[in-house]
Amino acid sequence: QQQVKQSPQSLIVQKGGISIINCAYENTAFDYFPWYQQFPGKGPALLIAIRPDVSEKKEGRFTISFNKSAKQFSLHIMDSQPGDSATYFCAANDGTNAGKSTFGDGTTLTVKP
Amino acid sequence: NAGVTQTPKFRILKIGQSMTLQCTQDMNHNYMYWYRQDPGMGLKLIYYSVGAGITDKGEVPNGYNVSRSTTEDFPLRLELAAPSQTSVYFCASSYSSQGGYEQYFGPGTRLTVT
Fold first, then answer.
1. Which of B44, B57, B102 should we substitute to test contact with A (largest number of A Cβ atoms within 10 Å)?
2. Would the CA dihedral through A83, A89, A93, A95 be positive or negative?
3. Percent of chain B with pLDDT over 90
4. Phi, psi torsion values for B84, nearest 5 degrees
5. Would the CB atoms of A44 and B90 count as touching at under 8 Å?
6. Taking a C-beta distance cutoff of 8 angstroms, is the pair A4, B45 a contact?
7. pLDDT exceeds cutoff 60 at A2
8. What are the tens digits of pLDDT across the range B59-78?
9. Using a CB-CB distance cutoff of 8 angstroms, which residues of chain B are in contact with residue A31?
10. What DSSP designation does A32 have?
């Protein structure tokens, strides 16, 4: 059972545009939502994370928006740059299950110059 | 800190051969994980460990085994390699940050079984 659904599967954005990736979850026990960035040939790396008691978190050009009632959260990349081209994974965990995260299937972002 | 290191980076196996993928972390994390990532796909959990001497199955454990004799090391053993095990394997460790868990991944091992 897919517990974290991520969309879109792929995304093409022009340089300077806004990239938006959406995730939806089912398990209401989830209470921590990290995002990971993976460049080709590399392992995923933590990008930004949010707790559900916060509706928005911003770090530089990256912003997570969280809608607890809808059980949805999204990553916004402002002023997208070619160097942002990567695969992005959303994840969720509940802090009680051996630290295991449930991952979305990933979104491949291409930023065209 | 080196973080999470994995060896080898690449390996080609023949069907039926065995091998061990090595994983070491120097962050003193209790939790460690093995994932596989098939081309264009997400991460699937193979095995995980909550501490030395304790391991458990993830969602795709068949054909693999693990051990955890120390906090630092979490090797993954492939017995009787099959083409279906061709994948990129990532080891990760995690700790609790701000009440939630964040995972730190190694660089991966790209395995081809022919």
1. B102
2. negative
3. 86
4. -65, -15
5. yes
6. no
7. no
8. 999 999 999 999 999 999 99
9. 99-100
10. B
